[in-house]
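Usage

Read records sequentially. Each one opens with the input sequence:
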Amino acid sequence: MSETITDPQRIHAVLDRHILPDVEQPGQYVGGEVNSVRKDPDTVDVSLALCFPDLYTVGMAHLGYQILYSIVNSLDWALAQRAYVPLPDMQRRMREHGIPLHVLESYRPVKCFDVVGFSLQSELLYTNVLTMLDLGGIPLESALRGQDDPIVIAGGPGAMAPEPMARFIDLFFVGDGEDTIVEFLGLLRALKAEGAPREEMILRAARSIPGLYAPAFYEAQYAGDGSLRGIRPVQKGLPERIRAARVRDLNEAPFPEAPIVPLVEAVHDRITLEIMRGCTRGCRFCQAGMIARPTRHRSVDRLCELARASYGATGHNEIALASLSSSDYPDLEELLERITAYLDPLKVNVSLPSLRITEQLRCLVGPLSSVRKSGLTLAPEVATERLRAVINKDVSNEELFEGTRAAARQGWRLVKLYFMIGLPTETEEDAGAIPGLCEGIVRNSAAGKGESPLRLNVTISPFVPKPHTPFQWEPMASQEQLRERIALIRRNARSRRVRYKFHDERRCLVEAVLARGDRRLGRAVRRVWERGGQFDAWDEHFSFERWMEALSECGVRLDQSDPNSPLRARSPEEVLPWDHIDCGVKKEYLLQERERALRSELTPDCREAGCKGCGACGGGDSSGEAPHPEATQSTPSGGRADRHACRSQGRG
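and closes with the structure output:
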């Protein structure tokens, strides 16, 4: 490897002359996109390198990343610039020529920034974080970093169960980041002016800013049998439990009106408007629906304003109105009428990625009748109504038939369906019913004379019981059980109009280990990375054998009879590796929902049946009785409330 180059101009020159002509998709490494911000790092007080641990084509489609970029660059005393994981061929050439990981805007090495921030969207990309740190010349583990190294932070869903990455991250940002990032950078600015040491900056941030967790200042304690006894602070002034930060008024929250336009096609090449955050449906498998509570929404006026500004700044031909359950947006019909009136003459398509099945008929024959008929996505999750009651998905097969029939009448020809296998209480009958339901949808879609039946693309994913859900105490289904379920579905599948795709159950087992484990797993993550592991979310890069060897060497057993296996069932009395992270939903409520699931009982939406006391809104006692009948029908601002490979969080 050549001597490391740190001068941005030399980095740029070597890339242009010796590297970019010979690598795949060079456009993702050049920067200069429309709406990217070109601040001079030497003119600001604090700098943040936003590092997305996946490819440019994936990271550019991530809304949260664009939100933080816009917020930080709106501050005249701070800047944010971007870096993504290079493809393996680019990594090799960078190492050969001494080019460190650098940001796109200025070609400045990420090591020269005050803060390096990661978005942990998937456990299967944890090794990519190590790749980026190593390419950037930053010590992998926080204990090895010195005064001149940047502070390494991380947010996203992975911060809700952070222990497997605890040895690599200085500060986790738990919950919403819009307000927290500004407060943190402001504190850092003041501490830099005081000349405070790096360690003191981290400690003072964790003490004073809600939602920040500094794992180096917490000790994991274990019993004689290896079971976790607790995770407790070892410095005064740190909270015992870290409460997730929450944006109270989404309508007033910053949102990018001029998102960056990628130079190469992204996985979602469109404008994304977040219409609502949080969900009250209470699907028991859905981590996102629990950790994002309470529900908050943007007004129709604000969304129309954002649509006009975003289209004018980008020229994209599609706008997605995104949330966990878009049909729960309180003024959906008004929003669609107003936004399509503006966009239809411009030939801009409007999409709603997360409609509930029960709302399909109303929307498809009304406000969505003019939407481009490329494909419709629905998530029945399971095929029997008993199992839907277990997961709290209040949908009947008849409603599914009615919705897909309406889709066919309105011109849709292709429907994508998502199902899970390996759910708690699942039987062979439940899994074996999936092909029959799909074939029933095909038949019912062409009930009239001369009508053509739908085609279905069906994705079957193993369920991963994630932290902060009612199923967090349940075991992960074994590899053998999942394989049996897949074989059963294949045997029962007959229709040529239904195409099935099965996600690799081995990859989901690794995801479950990382999602449910404690900080001892950090050794295995590093061992896998040292042996070439990265991009584990991709079929062509994932190696189950590599993970099994590393886990075995680090003493992690997958046998569910082992008392320390991350895949085993947990008792309600034991300490969970994420118990010190408070997402806002009470543990008592999750246990109550688990008990209702095992009795196959539905829990109605609190918007319709009153507060159930989950704790996210600050009301209720987890007894199921509503302290106030309207407790969750208003947001803090006063308005009305309302894939990865392995399914652990779905559409409401």
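Summary fields computed downstream for this record:
- The longest strand covers residues 414-421.
- The longest helix spans residues 178-194.
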